[in-house]
Each structure stands twice: as C-alpha cells, then as structure tokens.
Amino acid sequence: MNLLEKLDAAAAARKALLPAGLGAFGIPIEEIYSSTEARIGDRRVLLLGTNNYLGLTFAPECIQAAHAAIDSEGTGTTGSRMANGNYNGHRALEQEFADFYQCRSSIVFTTGYQANLGTISGIVGPGDVVLIDGDSHASIYDGCILSGADIIRFKHNDMADMEKRLRRLGERTHTTLIIAEGIYSMLGDQAPLVDIVRLKNAYNCTLLLDEAHSLGVLGETGQGLAEKTGLVKEVDFITGTFSKSLSSIGGYCVSNHPQLDQLRYVSHPYIFTASPSPATIASTRAALRLLQKGNNLREKLWQNSLQLYSQLTRAGYTLGPEPGPVIAVILDNPEQALTLWQGLLEHDIYVNLILPPAAPEGKSLVRCSVNAAHTDKQIDYVGRTFTKLYPNIFQ
Ligand code: PMP
C-alpha cells in the first residue's frame, strides 16, 4: 500500500464507523451566539461540548482588550519571541502568571500543545525517563516523543503501579520526570496529587502537572489542582492553556526553578513559531484577571456540574468516577455512543463524541462539558433529555 492508499484506508475505516452523512467530527458551527449557544445546520443548539469553563468567550472586558490591542499593535506579531515577536504584552502576561502562582517565573507559548511540547522536550532528553499517566493528553505524549527520553506509562491514577515502575528504575529516578494532569479530559477525574508528590519526593524525581482543564476550575483562586491540594510549591513545573477557562488560545509554564528561563534557548516549540497575536495576549490578560476574582463563576460552574452529574446518575447512565465540569457518559460500544450523540443533537444539544481509539481502554464516550454561563434551565433541559433518551440507547 502506498502513502496515499494508506490515507484512503484510514478514511474508509472512519466512514465504516460513522453512518453516511453523520459528520460527528469537525462539525461546522455556522454561527456562534454566546458561550452557550450556536447554530449547527439549521438548528440553534445548546453548547455542551466546549472547554469554555468560565464562559468568558464573550466577556466584554476580554473583547474590549482584544479590540484595543488590534488597534494599537496590529493583527499579528509575524515572528518568534526570540526575534521580532517579543512585545510588552507577552512579558507582562508572563509576569502576571508568575505573580498568580507566586512562582519565580513563567513562559508563555503559542498554544497549550506547544507548552507541553516545549517544556517536556526542554527538560528531558535521550537517556532520561518520563513516567506518565496512561491517559495523558496527546500533547504530553508528543512532547515525550520529541524529547527522545525513555517513555514509561503507569496505569491511570494507579499509585501502586506508579511506585512499582519507580522501584524498577533504581538510580534512574534522579533523571525521571513524572507527568500528571489536574483534571483528565476524557473521564473528568483528578490526579491523586498528594500521593504523586509523596512518591516524587521519596524517589527524588521531578514533577510536571498539566492544569489545562483545572485552571479556573479548582482551587481557591482558580490555580488548579496544585492549589486545591496546597501543593503548588511541590510541583516543579505547571503547564496549562489559555484555550479553556481563559477563553482564547495559547499556553504557559510556571516554575520556581531558575532554570525555566533556559527553555527559551533550547525549546524548538517556543523558538520556531510565531508568538501569540496582540489581541490574544490582551484578551488572555483580561480573562486572567476575571479568573482570579471569579469565585462566583467557579461556584456557578460547580453548581451546574453537580446538578448535571446527579441528574445523569439518576437517569441510570454510567459516568466518569468523579463529578466535575467534564462529565463523561461511558457507553458499551460506538453504536450506543452514536445513537446518544445523534439523539442529543436532534434535541438541539451539542456534546462531544469520543470513539475508540481516542477514548481510554477502548471505551466509547459522550462527553459533556459544563460551563459557568449555563443557566439552571439549560442544565435541567439537558438532564431531562438524557433521561428521555435512555430507553432508546439501552433497549
Ligand atoms: N493539555 C491538555 C490536558 C489538553 O486537554 C489540551 C487541549 N485539549 C492541551 C494540553 C492543549 O491545549 P491547547 O488547546 O492550548 O493546544
């Protein structure tokens, strides 16, 4: 099979999984009305499959800041942070992230994907080890591959398995980077950070925590799982994204280690790409301010999350192990997931469909993401619709 035939075979496999005309992946959003509503085809749908946890995509403060930045600094930087793309706004945002976490310094990347690629490949290299959770996001896997370090996986959130692997590493634990996530994006559960930190210290490793889904969601001021567990100072590197609670695009790494700055000179995903646009940086700075004083948003987000989690549990669905803004409905097979996904869309509700091999352990998921802008009425409608569809799925 030549290269193009291989792509044809992959397309055929995808088509076999999805009935004709059902564009579940990359569905076109025709118009976007607010952080909870959009038009798909001729339907006005309720958005329940975004990462817009604090619902800030239309926050006037962020929109005004972005407008002002375009007017004064133009549409793009047209260059790398290491060349012509290092504006005041980028440096100010780095200082604001460092202040937010009360850490020594931070680096802003162009996406969260690149933050993981750039940080991981900057810290470890050939001969080193990365010990990662089996459910890690693709950006973590890709960062590990780019680094050339030896990749060892432990079973998702299984501390006995993690310790077994640490014991086997012997002296190599000194050059081992452990990687975990604050909230896992597939099942919505949190890392057992207290145990991870205990093992990291016992075996003298370095720890990176990706707070992509937990920034703005967990912790008194929204720093994430490290803040919730009182362990910010114990985590060596925290990475995250602007594309979820901060409602824009970009990524960051914060650390107390002075060596973080060195990544700017070695990390290809930092050096060889254009820096975020002025509008992106300005809206992110405004969103970070809202996030820090956003306790009412976090409260509403959790109220919505708990309400939907309990409604879906009562309806009989099997859910991810822990309530939170990411609520994964676990189905036995892709057909059930598709039927549910399609049924929801017919009731004007958009959620994410995740089929094997993308979901962990060959599962099929219908994943809901709740946000702070959802009204009680919207959440209740979603709960009632899931309840109504249950017999169609498990007949
Ligand atoms: N880490 C995790 C855990 C993620 O889920 C994502 C995005 N889905 C990223 C990193 C990458 O973030 P970005 O969208 O900013 O590239």
TrEMBL record:
Species of origin: Nitrosomonas cryotolerans ATCC 49181
Molecular functions (GO terms): pyridoxal phosphate binding; transferase activity
One Pfam family of this chain: Aminotran_1_2
UniProt-recorded name of the protein: Serine palmitoyltransferase
Origin: domain of life: Bacteria
Aminotransferase class I/classII large domain segment(s): 44-382
PANTHER family registered for this protein in UniProt: CLASS II AMINOTRANSFERASE/8-AMINO-7-OXONONANOATE SYNTHASE, LD36009P
Family: Belongs to the class-II pyridoxal-phosphate-dependent aminotransferase family.
Cofactor(s), names only, from the UniProt record: pyridoxal 5'-phosphate
CDD domains in the cross-refs: KBL_like (cd06454)
Keywords assigned by UniProt, alphabetized: Pyridoxal phosphate, Transferase
